[in-house]
Amino acid sequence: MAAEEAGATQQSTTDAKGPEHGDVLRIIAEVERSLGALRAQAGKSAGDRSSQDAAAAESRQAALREALAEEVDRLKREAERLGSEREKLLANQSKIESELADLRAACAVAEERARRAEEARQQVETAGIRSQIQRETDAIKSLEAKLDDAQARARELERERNEAQHEVAVAVSKLTAVIKVTERHAIRENELETEVETLRAEVEAARKIERHGIRASDIAAVASAEEHVQQTLMPQLEAAAEFLRIRRERLNAIRNTLKRRTKAMRVLQQIYSAQPAILQAEAEAIATERAAVEAERLEVVAERKKLTELRVEAERAVAKARSRVSFARVFAFAALAMAAVAGSAWTSWHVAGIVAPVHSVASVELETTNRLTGAAIPDSTPIATWLQTARAGEAFAGVVAAKLVDRGHQRTEADLAVKELATALQLESSGPTVRLTLRGGDPDRTVALLDAVVAAAVSEAARQPERKSDQIRLAVVGSEQEVGRTVVSRAMVLEDTTRLLRAGILFGMALTAAAGAVYLVARMLRTKRDAAVATGAGTSPAAAH
After folding, report:
1. pTM of the entire predicted model
2. Which of 46, 348, 475, 483 is most buried, judged by most C-beta within 10 A?
3. DSSP-derived secondary structure for 129-143
4. What is the pLDDT of residues 24-44, one digit of tens each?
């Protein structure tokens, strides 16, 4: 009845609390089964015991029942605590999953915004560069036309200068002859000198206007060349500047020659009577061109400033989006890496234990006593000889298997366990003591098997006909009482010095495989991204045209 009640309690508790309490419930069931076995064993041996032993057994059973009740209550409280912790963990897991989903959605939105900002920045840059190239091309064409006009005007002025030099030379010769022939014209000469001074001032003004015009043209050419002229037109502009410089030097030489020929100012006045108006018109035209070029330069500078501001703003937005995405990626990668490392470490340790299971040794001492009061302590050799022979027999193995089944083990598991008794069980006898040593894997299973062997040995030894004649009885030395059972043996786990090495090797192999997989995936993603960028770069010019 106690076993059935324990099974019903285990089933209901399992349905209510979940699979996490299975270990606790199994412990409760084992304790209940152990109590039932003790009760059955107490019932079987009630006829053989005296009234004093029966009373002691009843008191022990009462103590065991109280200890069992306390242990069951404690285990139930532990199960309830584990259930509450599990619910808290499930709630935390749901919260983390929702936060992770929100983070992934934010990453997707940030990536989409970054992509749109990048496309907008590229479109703005492309449109601005095209318009700027078009304006600079128009400005270059205009400058080329102006340069051709300036070269034509320079050639015309050179021709006029040559003609003026010839005419001045002729006029000077004529004027010299006239001055030497007659002095009647002295007064007229003074008048002419006065007029010459006036004309000189006018010519000097014309020269200043001409010099100002030439410098303005040079400055305009240099400023336009610095701002708008491309590298291919620089040689032509430099040649034009050199040509204008040579022309200016020649004009300076002409002016120096005219200074030395002050007596020919009348002829110079006749020749250059129309030059001030021409130079003034040319100066005004050059000033107008210079103002237009300067206005165009200021417009280009303003547009370039706007484009720079837009580019900085787009880059700032892209940088913010990338920083958010990078943080999310780093957080997710760190979480995955920590989970992968922890999982790899646990798996490596577990697999290392499976590949080479842990070894344990359980031992127990049996003592031979005499049933007769005051008799000498008998030697354990007959018992040791009988156990040495019985451990390899099927009858003794069947009794041990039955003991294991009575203690809650499966029949197949018990049959497999007793097959190794012949090789795993060792006996040593010394005086009245027989020491049993059992080697196995799991310490708990080894102790359970040795306890079953001891119980079978004690019961079977009592049934032997020889024991009735020699009055030898077999008892356990140093047994201890625990909740639900009597512990007669203790297991010692042998130290495994190579498990850590095996686990480390497996952990390194797992990390190497994971790193290789991450490298391959990253390389595939990078190849796809490069292909997408190349495809986009190839289709952008066609879309732009």
Report:
1. 0.31
2. 348
3. HHHHHHHHHHHHHHH
4. 566 666 666 766 666 666 555
